[in-house]
Amino acid sequence: MKNNLALMADFYEFTMAAAYYQNRMFAPATFSLFIRDYPPHRGYFVSAGLEEVLEFLESFHFTQEDLDYLTTTGLFSEEFLQYLSRLKFTGNVFAIPEGRIFFKDEPILEVTAPIIEAQLVETFVINAINLQVTLATKAARCVYVSRGRKLVDFSLRRTQGVDAGLKVARASFVAGFASTSNVLAGKLYGIPVAGTMAHSFVTSFEEEIDAFRTFVRTFPGNAVLLIDTYDTLSGAHKAVKVGREMLNRGERLLGVRLDSGDMTDLSKEVRKILKAADLGEVSIFASGAFDEYKISEVIEKGGEIDAFGVGTKMGVSADAPYTDMAYKLVQYGRRPVLKLSTGKRTLVAEKQVLRIREGSNLTKDIIALRDEKAVGEPILKTVMENGKRNLLPEPLAAIRDRFQQEFMVLGEAYKSLENPKTFPVELSPGLTELQERTVHEVREKELGES
């Protein structure tokens, strides 16, 4: 990583770590990352962000500059800071691979490491996974309703910062987007890049048709014309004229782009204009405030649109911009631990998620103890041991294929845009018994209940 991010943590991670150190608490601890509940109208999540977490953990360390800064707080002993100067992440990570579907309450990732190490990485782990899961899930909903039409990530200008813009491009590609307008993301992740022109290009010319002619001369094999700067239908007629000129030169106009107005009606009218000029094969591309709801509405009304540029609302997951994600201690040493807080109870111990199918369809998941013998496909994998990752970074295309294969066998009722059915997730007998026993022990010890 270009910048050392070990200080990318909430301050209480350090105060707890100092207290652990002073009391010589170095036993292995297991923390579980999960989402407590679904945001509105969500029935599933898409696993994403694991690669960033593994990269962070493998390079985790504190620089002298980091330690000098911590010294300025006046709270930490020189002995503790010396301990941090030697600290590396030496733990194990058990996680759901990127691109797989998961559901609320299921562990997305579990970290087992000496408690100081596992505690100090908490904030980064939540931040990285929460963002990309949120974005990949939003993008998956857009892909689902597009019914095979190409989607392009147009979100960069209005995402919440540079890093978020890169992560949107990555997460949306995993979920099935065809390309991104983000050139840096194209370079970093190998994602195809795409773009047309802006209204400023059109208005920089004396006449709209001159802008069109200039652009197609520069890009005769990849020309998409933005036709709504002044009037969409007038622009369509000018695009047709330029398209005919291209045909006479042995070239072909690739597409026209709509960016405003009633997309359903305008796309139908533009299609008529193109067909009348024997240019019916020219693609109609639409952008402008699209998300899964607007895409679905335009398609259902018969809009003649072949591809969509999806921007702001996808890039910030406007209707559900966060998840209620938590990273909680579930075992310290050999002792299972939990919270009993109202609405925030946790599940004890190291766990596995077992996926049950009937034929090719997903039917239910079972959250079980890690070493419990039970039926089903175990979906959490060992991805890091002793601070070293097990596998090289996966190509995004492989993660994308994994998502498409799994999403295909998830029932339609769970994919609905509004009020989806809740996928059944159960606790195994072994986890149920240990959970109940631990709750009883905690109530007896902490609350004096018999």
Describe this entry's structure for a reader.
The protein has 450 residues and is α/β, with parallel strands linked by helices. The chain folds into 2 domains: 251 residues, nicotinate phosphoribosyltransferase (Alpha-Beta Barrel); 172 residues, Alpha-Beta Barrel (TIM Barrel), CATH 3.20.20. Helix content is 40%, strand content 18%. It has a 7-stranded antiparallel beta sheet with strand order 13-12-1-5-3-17-18. The chain is elongated, with a radius of gyration of 26 Å. The mean pLDDT is 97.
Note the main attributes of this structure.
450 residues; alpha/beta; nicotinate phosphoribosyltransferase; TIM Barrel; 2 domains; 16 helices; 40% helix
Uncertain segments of ≥5 residues (pLDDT<50)? none
Secondary structural class: alpha/beta
Number of domains: 2
Helix residue percentage: 40-55%
Short recap of the structure:
By secondary structure, this protein is an alpha/beta fold. The chain contains 16 helices and 19 strands.
Helix and strand arrangement:
Elements: H1 11-22, E1 28-35, E2 45-46, H2 50-58, H3 64-72, H4 78-86, E3 92-95, E4 101-102, E5 109-114, H5 115-120, H6 122-146, E6 150-153, H7 162-174, E7 179-180, H8 183-189, H9 199-203, H10 208-218, E8 224-226, H11 232-248, E9 255-258, H12 263-276, E10 283-287, H13 292-300, E11 307-310, H14 312-315, E12 325-332, E13 335-336, E14 351-358, E15 361-369, E16 377-378, E17 381-385, E18 388-389, H15 396-408, E19 425-427, H16 429-447
Parallel strand pairs: 6-7, 6-11, 8-9, 9-10, 10-11, 15-19
Antiparallel strand pairs: 1-5, 1-12, 2-4, 3-5, 3-17, 12-13, 14-15, 14-16, 17-18
